[in-house]
Every structure is written in structure tokens, then in C-alpha cells.
Amino acid sequence: MSDVMAGVAISATLIGCAIGSGIGGLIFKNIAENYDRLGELCSGIAVLVVRLVVCLLFFVWDPPCGKLLWYHYVELAAIGGTLVTVGGVDRALLKKAIEDKCQGTAAAAIRTISGIASSLILFQVSAYLSEKVFGYVPSRKSFETMDAAVKERNAEALRKSMMYIILAGTILNVFCYIALLCNIPKKVGGN
């Protein structure tokens, strides 16, 4: 894939992020107003199912060979849209679950834990998957002088490792939402 096509792929993902955050926020707001207790969780599960389907399509369909086809753009936009839309669900759930005076502290703690976890754990998992499982070949050569076969193998190893990480995170998120859904207390007398 050329640099231009890689830039177009990133643009498609970012456009999906922008559309997903804008439209997703409006849809979630409407659902939360109409379905008092389960709206956000069910919306989050629906978005994660869409992400799960897109991840599976990334695995099933052939990767682009030089030119992105229409369905690649749809996949990239959908994955971008679901990545930011789920954040809206998480924030709405936290706002309801945490007292107002603790909102800032909770948000900071979550961001800190998330940053540390992604820096320490995600990096190691990605490196292990890329090299040990999918056959990434470390090289000190510049990209221009690297053999075409090594470039192709490394690109495929990185693609697969990132997709497995996104897939695992999506499945974990679905399980967390289902656990929350199953543990919501029943309304008793309007409380």
C-alpha cells in the first residue's frame, strides 16, 4: 500500500470517528432519555456488536493489495465510529454511577490506569503477537532497502496483531457490559 493510500485509510477512520461521535452522541442521548436504566448499556452492546462484526470482516476479507476498495472504506469508518462512540457510553455510565463531587478524580484515575495499561501491557502483547505468533522479522535496514518479502510479512504480522488486540478488547468490553446489565438492581417503588 502506498503512502497516499495509507493516508486515505487513516482519513476514512478519522471521518468515521467524527461521524460516530456526533451522531452516536445524539442517538445515545435520545435512547437514554427514553429508556431510563438500560438504554446506555444496550446501546453500548449494539455498538460493540457492530465493532465485532467489522473486526471479523477484517479477518475474513483479503487485505487491500495496493488499492482500497469501497468496503475497506466502510470497514475503516465503522471501526473509527465505534471506537469513539463507546467512550460516550462509558462516560454516561460513569456519570450515573459516581457522585458529582468525585467525577474529576474518577475521570483522572480512569485515564491514568488506561494510559499505564496501554503503555505497559498493550505494547508487550503487541510485540509478542507480532514477533512470536505472526512471524514479524526485526530488521535494522531502512524501509527502502528492506526486502519486499520481509516488508509484506511484517505488514501482515502487524495487521494481525492489531486486529487480535482490537478483537480481544471488544470481546472484553462486551462481557463487561453484559455483566453490568445482569447486575443492575430492579426498580423498587420508583427508586
TrEMBL record:
Keyword terms, alphabetized: Membrane, Transmembrane, Transmembrane helix
Gene3D superfamilies: MFS general substrate transporter like domains
Entry coiled-coil feature ranges: none
Xref: InterPro entries: MFS_trans_sf
Residue stretches spanning the membrane: 6-28, 40-61, 73-94, 106-129, 162-182
Protein name as annotated: Major facilitator superfamily member protein
